[in-house]
């Protein structure tokens, strides 16, 4: 028997709110992350840090595999002004 995973559809506005919330959560975590994971890439979902990875490619591949609904954000852990690097939402 094949199991399928339903991918939830959200509106563009909902996606923007989720990305912004992840970004705000990341900014709050950034001082601590700078001490422990400087130069790595953080994967966030639902305003929670899911994992850090040494490269953007590894962060994306891991998040993409873990979340079939593709609802995650990736941020670079760096001392410069952070920029939301990746957000991926299915159905937009």
Note down, in words, how this protein is organized.
This protein is α+β, with helices and mostly antiparallel strands and 92 residues long. The chain has one domain (12-88). Helix content is 40%, strand content 23%. It contains two helices and four strands, in the order αββαββ. A four-stranded antiparallel β-sheet has the order 2-1-3-4. The chain is globular, with a radius of gyration of 14 Å. The model is unreliable at 1-5 (pLDDT under 50).
What is the terminal separation in angstroms? Answer: 30 Å
Roughly what percent helix? 40-55%
Helix/strand-derived category reads: alpha+beta
Radius of gyration: 14 Å
Shape field: globular
The domain count comes to 1
DSSP strand count: 4
Strand order of the largest sheet: 2-1-3-4
* H/E element order: HEEHEE
Note the beta-strand portion: 15-25%
Multimeric organization: single chain
User: Can you tell me the residue ranges where pLDDT is under 50 for at least 5 consecutive residues?
Assistant: 1-5
In DSSP terms, counting alpha (H) and pi (I) runs of 4 or more, how many helices?
2
Mean pLDDT: 85
Topology:
Elements lengths: L11 H26 L3 E5 L2 E6 L2 H11 L5 E5 L7 E5 L4
What would a concise description of this structure say?
This protein has two helices and four strands.
List keywords for this structure.
single chain, four-stranded antiparallel sheet
């Amino acid at each position: 028997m094949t199991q399928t995973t339903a991918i939830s559809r959200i509106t563009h506005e909902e996606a923007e709110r989720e990305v912004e919330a992840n970004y705000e959560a990341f900014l709050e975590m950034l001082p601590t992350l700078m001490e422990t994971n400087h130069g790595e890439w953080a994967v966030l979902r639902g305003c929670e840090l899911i994992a850090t990875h040494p490269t953007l490619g590894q962060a994306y591949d891991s998040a993409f595999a873990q979340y079939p609904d593709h609802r995650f954000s990736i941020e670079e852990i760096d001392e410069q002004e952070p920029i939301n690097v990746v957000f991926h939402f299915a159905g937009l």
